[in-house]
Design goal:
This protein is mainly beta and about 180 residues long. It is about 0% helix and about 50% strand. The protein is built from one helix and 15 strands, in the order αβββββββββββββββ. The strands form four sheets. Strands 3, 4, 7, 8, 9 and 10 form a six-stranded antiparallel beta sheet that branches. A four-stranded mixed beta sheet has the order 11-12-1-15, with no helix packed on it. The chain starts with 6 loop residues before the first helix and ends with a strand.
Length: about 180
Amino acid sequence: MRGAWPEAMRWLPLLVLAACSSPYNPGMGGDDDPGDTTDVPLRDCKTRFEYVPTGGVTTVAVAGQWDWTTKEPMTLSGDRYVLEKELPAGIHAYKLVVDDQWILDPANAYRAYDGGVENSGVRVDDCKAPLVKIVSHETSAEGAVTKLALFRGAEGAAIESLRVVRRFEFADHELEYERTGCL
């Protein structure tokens, strides 16, 4: 499909709007110094479990390989049961316990095995590390805009630098970007 795009479209600049980020060393001065970046939010270390019942339910809990003997009750919030729990980074096997019946999470196709038993699985990132998350990406005849959300690690670790690179036809092109503030 090489050459299918008009020449102007092949070299459109990519504008990245970075929310609350500091790609520079603080205090260096100059036009590039964003100043105080303490407004960059910290990552949340909680893993969210949700269950939307399809019929009448009286109790819903979560149990997992972190402690299979403890069924942690989930709280009804609107039409769903919810539990937020801090877990260490890694892959964790778990099951929902609905009215004392152990079930796989119907909203999660990811599986993890513990002791040869199939369970639902959840992958937990290291929340102490900074995070860059794509919020949206839009393209038009004028160009492309990608919006990012940036988070410091849970203990304050910051993003030290940020580069924006467009890869097109096997070549990398470093691009400029604009910081627009917090989302």
